[in-house]
Amino acid sequence: MSIRITLPDGSERTMPDGVTGYDVAADIGPRLAKAAVAVTVDSAMYDLHRPIPHDATVSIITDNTEAGRHVLRHSAAHVMAQAVLELFPGSTFAIGPAIQDGFYYDFSVDAPFTPDDLERIEAKMADIVAADQPFERDELSIADALVQFEDHPFKREIIAGVDADEGVEGDTVSTYRNDAFLDLCRGPHVPSTGRLKAFQLMRSAGAYWRGDETKAQLQRIYGTAWESRKALDAYLVQLEEAAKRDHRKLGNELDLYSFPSELGSGLAVWHPKGGILRRTIEDYSRRTHMTHGYEYVVSPHVAKADLWETSGHLNFYRDGMYPVMELDGGEGKPGQEYFVKPMNCPFHILIYRARSRSYRELPLRLFELGTVYRYERSGVLHGLMRARGFTQDDSHIFTTETDLAGELQRLLDFVLMVLRDFGFDEFEADLSTRPDKYVGNVEAWKRAEEYLAASLDSADLSYQLAPGEGAFYGPKIDIHIKDAIGRRWQLSTIQVDFAQPENFGLEYATNENTRERPVMIHRALLGSVERFVGILVEHYAGAFPMWLAPVQTTVIPVADRHAEYARSVGDQLLGVGIRAHVDDADETVGEKIRRAITSKHPAVIVVGDNDVEHSTVGLRLRGEDSEQRGIPVVEAVAQLAEMARPPR
RNA sequence: GCUGGCGUAGCUCAGUUGGCCAGAGCAGCCGCCUUGUAAGCGGCAGGUCAUGGGUUCGAGUCCCAUCGCCAGCUCCA
Question: Which of A206, A459, A586, A605 has a CA that sits 20 to 30 A from residue A147's CA?
Fold first, then answer.
């Protein structure tokens, strides 16, 4: 008997019965066989040494692909669990998958792991890898499996919860054994532990069983594993690179902002250089909104409880709000309750409702740089990226339902234009649809979802559907960008809202003088100005494009006698709107240049005797190895002014 | 909020098992030098060791609480 193997390139081979993925790989070539870690048989993943049961399309998974690393990492997770169970008698284990760049395993142990424990575990893992223990697959009935794992309640819960995603096929489950260690697992795994060439444990942290904070708290250990020491080292270097870009670190080094603990967590103050950066972004935002059909409005930071009652925030969002302030109360008299705003929408709605509205005014686009405060749980705070006080480039668009599709279209074009202006050009979107708990009618939801999808299609933006992830009041689009080192950040959000116009009884007069209810769109493009600055800092590693750079040009006199000329050059730069700084400190030229470069200033001008004599400057631009000398001042000023011009 | 880790001059860090251990570099200030493209030289000043309690003859070091930071979990109308 023989079976027919089809390879990904379409070629076919006839192989003897009982052939394995490894045999196929070896038949193709020894190098492939060496790099192979698993195989796909039709759509299923198989271990390398598991016989292929029937004619199939087979492709070899090698260790230097994402799928291959996934297998390596999953196997590494097993080895880690094996080490932990050996080192910590009485401990038990829960779930241990491969994840992006690594793996983790959750354990229930007497005491949380210490850094020393991680070292011991890593050493034990190295022993297991050195022993090159084969992974052996087996299938058990559910009843047998429950007995096998009788000491491991989490595993029993998984088995009892029979789920095809967790190693369960019909009424049997698969297990993998290496040496004395047995784990419930769908596989596949590498043939033996010796294949794990490069791994490292990263950290431990608490995690809840099944991700549910009401359930048992487990101890999770994160690790990473790669196909080679070289690949692991490259990954560790990349982590260091990301750490160097950390906006909290750079914000401090570049003197942009700080988080004084006296303020309380999640609250920042902006230093002059950060202030001008922010200001530049905000000016850009206001300017582009004004030229794209928006009207600028302003609203206060607090409002009476009634407003938040009507908007539904007190019902749905109270936990995210700063607690109530009671004013004018006392002596038995109840006071007036106020809340700090967590969102701007109710204010914009009141502006809409300040007088009767006609269809002729719609779409009405109200825009505000609105500062909101949210009582984020302390554990989620993260520099500017997740703060308790932040400013949204927020707008609420009131439109007829007829115009909704066109408005969404126009909006998406606007979003992409803005993000491109800041130097982002890779986008991904999520389309979140109706959740179980929702307001409004299903038909309207459906239409809104279709309009959102259509706008994404026509903007040629690829998107992922997130079923049921919409807000209770309407579906939404979230737009993510990829930064310079490939990380994905969610920035813009566009949300359709059927609920608030209802809550506030909004209306407009139609051309037949009947009353209709407008639809609202909530949208923020940069999201929060704070977070956006954080993302820009990390994207550019602090070396901002010239139009955003807090200091755009540093002017350095060679000696004291050139200071006056340097100041006149500086004044000419200031005169054309360039943020120039004359560094006439009592230091050597080399030192002052170094200072300007490490502060990431885009341009450095040095002036000495020759320049004073000929009205020229020496110009060094960021990113260029050497300077140009003897440039006429007027030329340099014109060139820098051009470079510093905002995108629009 | 939960679990773990952490908190020593503006910044980056040293400070053995509690006992002449409160230190260094950079930044700052004051001098000298007058500089042509990534760190000139010398000096000075700067910390209630996050805060508040406690243990001890003695606490930066041990314990407790609070505040803040980090990682992860959870959350992210």
Answer: A206
- What's the CA–C1' distance between A634 and B37, in Å? 21
CB contact at 8 A, A20 and A51: yes
> What amino acid is encoded at A401 in this protein?
E
CATH code at A553-643: 3.40.50.800
Task: Judge if the beta carbon of A432 is closer than 7 A to nucleic acid strand B.
Answer: no
Beta bridge partners of A358: A509
Note the strand B nucleotides within 7 A of protein beta carbons.
Answer: 1-5, 7, 11-12, 31-40, 67-77
How far does the CA of A636 sit from the C1' of B66, in Å? 57
CB A451 within 8 A of CB A474: no
Å: A532 CA to B8 C1' = 34
The upper half-sphere exposure of residue A405, i.e. CA atoms within 13 Å in the direction of its Cβ, equals 11
Helices (H) and strands (E) in chain A, counts: 20, 34
| Distance from residue A249's CA to nucleotide B12's C1', rounded to whole Å | 12
CA of A81, C1' of B70: distance in angstroms? 26
- Is strand B in 7 Å reach of the CB of A586? yes
Q: Write the pLDDT tens digit of every residue in A129-182.
A: 999 999 988 888 888 888 888 888 888 888 877 654 444 456 788 888 888 888
In angstroms, how far is B74 C1' from A164 CA?
26
Question: Does the CB of A559 sit below 7 A from strand B?
Answer: yes
C-alpha distances out from residue A381 to A148, A385, A528, Å: 43, 8, 14
* CATH 3.40.50.1360 corresponds to the domain A2-62: no
Which residue numbers of A are catalytic? 345, 374, 392, 394, 396, 476, 522
Percent of chain A beyond pLDDT 90?
A: 51
**In the numeric block, which tokens belong to residue A100?**
């992006």
* CB of A388 nearer than 7 A to strand B: no
DSSP string, A297-320: ----SEEEHHHHHHHTHHHHSGGG
Which residue has 């979107």 as its token pair? A429
Q: Of chain A residues 199-228, which have a beta carbon within 7 Å of strand B?
A: 203-208, 211-213, 217, 219-220, 222
- Every domain of chain A and the residues it spans: 2-62, 67-240, 257-327+334-540, 553-643
Distance from C-alpha of A221 to C-alpha of A285, rounded to nearest angstrom: 43
Q: Tell me what ipTM this predicted complex has.
A: 0.91
Identify the bridge partners of residue A208 per DSSP, sorted by sequence position.
Answer: A217
Query: Tokens 């909004």 label which residue?
Result: A506
Q: Which nucleotide lies nearest residue A260, CA to C1'?
A: B68
- Residues facing A168 on adjacent strands: A173
Question: Does the nearest atom of strand B lie within 7 Å of A593's Cβ?
Answer: yes
For B67, which residue's CA is nearest its C1'? A261
pLDDT at A167: 45
Residue A101 DSSP SS3: coil
Domain A257-327+334-540: give its CATH architecture. Answer: 2-Layer Sandwich (3.30)
pLDDT tens-place string over residues A501-529: 988 999 999 999 999 999 999 999 999 99
* Residues A392, A284: Cα–Cα separation, whole Å: 14
Is strand B in 7 Å reach of the CB of A606? Answer: yes
Q: Where are the alpha helices (DSSP H) in A245-383?
A: 247-253, 272-290, 305-311, 313-316, 345-352
Superfamily of domain A67-240: Threonyl-trna Synthetase; Chain A, domain 2 (3.30.980.10)
Residue of A331 and A3 predicted with greater confidence: A3
How high is the pLDDT of residue A565?
Answer: 96
**Peptide linkage before A188 cis (omega within 30 of 0):** yes
